[in-house]
Amino acid sequence: MAAAVGTDPLTLADMLRVANDPGFERWREQIRRTGGCSNPIRLQGQTVTRDAKTGDVLYAYSTADEPGGALRVACGNRRASRCPSCAWTYAGDTYHLIRSGITGGKSVPATVRDHPRVFATLTAPSFGPVHNRPTSGRCRCGAAHADTDPILGTALNPAAYDYAGAVLWNNHAGQLWQRFTIYLRRELAARAGLSQRALGEHCRVSFGKVAEFQKRGAVHFHAVIRIDGPDGPDSPPPGWATTALLDDVIRAAASRATVPIPPAGAFAGRTLAWGTQVDVQPIGALDHEELTEAAVASYVAKYATKAAETTGTVDHRIGELAELDKLPHLPAHTRRLIEACWALDAAYPDRLLAHWAHMLGFRGHFSTKSRRYSTTLGILRQVRADYRARQDRQEHGWAEDLDDTEGSTLVLAHWTYAGQGHTPGESWLAQSIARDLQLNRETAREALTELSDLDDLGAWDD
């Protein structure tokens, strides 16, 4: 318990209670199976597995004998601020989803490496000057800000900053992306001399994207965009579809896509559009190229687990504006963005701005993809579930060919929700388990990297 030095007495007492409980080892096994989840869901119930032909009971399970009378399962929250362990799993799934659309794998052919593909970043326009770190080294305020300076991204002149425009832009960013994809296909068809309907007979555009909040509180999107043949990744694109062409149509589509906002009450109408900073980079397949495949997938996965809390806001909904008075550490710039959401809520009731004030107005999905880009998160999760089912099958000594999907077994189950979360002592111990699991993963990753490096050097040649 040396590591518990500094822990408050109540937490320490609860931790000792948990550690001395006869069911501690089983509790620890449950937490390890959740990956060290910070806020596990507790279920109560039972399950009986029978042979579908004979009716014999193959396995029976009840939570009555579990620690606390409950089974703990991972919460599955993608936000690192809520559950680092589940967010790590989500980031890993996102990594494989994005990378398979770049290099192949997970049902995607390796030939996609030969398709035109780029890493594009589309940003929000300016809503007023903010403190930054320009290439010249000095901000407009005259200071040379450090990279960790909390003032970065905040308005130079809050009175003149367009906070209403910023939250409306965040709120409609998903629609703006949708219109961008429409114009992307239109621009591609125009350059190929084809109608939009005929374009589908020659090629398709696929993408996987993630949203990220800048320090100023504005959303921007990172996306892998690829041109495939008419049948998707399984077919080669036409010869005229090049990376340079893809770069050109992305920039053209970004300049054309707009979302009109009608006037409402005291607020004037406006037209939302992308910012002038549109970055498009080809994805390289070799380590010495500027943007490697693994780097792109890692970058996208990193931001898939983050949200507006990176700007200093809260990671939960704000029931009423008065709650902000209980948040003394909330940055003034972020506070004004939240207040703008509430001020605009009555004027645009269908946009639910107050409901999404904790997200600074953003209400879209953080990670999305087109249907044919690659595999799905659901498939990746099913693979993991099937793997665990095989482990259970081996543990129970069942025949390997006893496949539930073929109706060989009948499972009768009844579950009820029994709560969520840890006691203070359980929370401390779960964090310790999560750290151990993370250390093991990092050690294994380093070992695989070293083996890969040795292989590249020919260390495994006979």
Descriptive account of the structure:
A hairpin with a 5-residue loop joins strand 5 and strand 6. The protein has 10 helices and 11 strands. The strands form 3 sheets. It has a 5-stranded antiparallel β-sheet, with helices on both faces. Strands 1, 2, 3 and 11 form a 4-stranded antiparallel β-sheet that branches. Helix 1 (9-19) crosses helix 10 and helix 4 (163-192) crosses helix 8. The two termini are 50 Å apart. It is globular, with a radius of gyration of 26 Å. The longest helix has 33 residues, at 424-456. Mean pLDDT is 87; it is low at 454-462. It folds into 2 domains: 2-79 and 377-456, no CATH class; 84-127 and 162-369, no CATH class. Helix content is 36%, strand content 16%. By secondary structure, it is α+β, with helices and mostly antiparallel strands.
Characterize this entry briefly:
With 462 residues, this protein is α+β, with helices and mostly antiparallel strands. The protein has helices at 9-19, 24-33, 84-103, 163-192, 196-199, 243-256, 293-303, 332-345, 377-396, 424-456, and strands at 41-51, 57-62, 71-73, 117-122, 204-213, 219-228, 258-261, 270-273, 278-282, 367-369, 409-420. A five-stranded antiparallel beta sheet has the order 9-4-6-5-10, with helices on both faces. Strands 1, 2, 3 and 11 form a four-stranded antiparallel beta sheet that branches. The chain has a two-stranded antiparallel ribbon with strand order 7-8.
